């Protein structure tokens, strides 16, 4: 008598090690996603997504209607951030997602330059 697999058992359950979700793959060094990087699905992602793992498909479905940050994807999927980053790398390599890197913080402002500009504007305004 053969037992049928439990339909309610998800691949991401505690019984399945996380390396199974990523097929033992590590994050490639050229795919270091920041927490605030924004992710969205590519236009033709639906047709190529049939061969994806359930977790990768879930990630793709999450970002299909707009941009989500990497941290938000991890929160919605309840997967560790490292696993989400590996799944995103797989999806990006397959051309299924687009990633917008976060805008870098503004550089320090030269206070002397700003003061000189303000002084020049004040002199011009007040005719001094």
Automatic annotation (TrEMBL):
<dbReference type="InterPro" id="IPR007995">
    <property type="entry name" value="DUF742"/>
</dbReference>
<dbReference type="Pfam" id="PF05331">
    <property type="entry name" value="DUF742"/>
</dbReference>
<protein>
    <submittedName>
        <fullName>DUF742 domain-containing protein</fullName>
    </submittedName>
</protein>
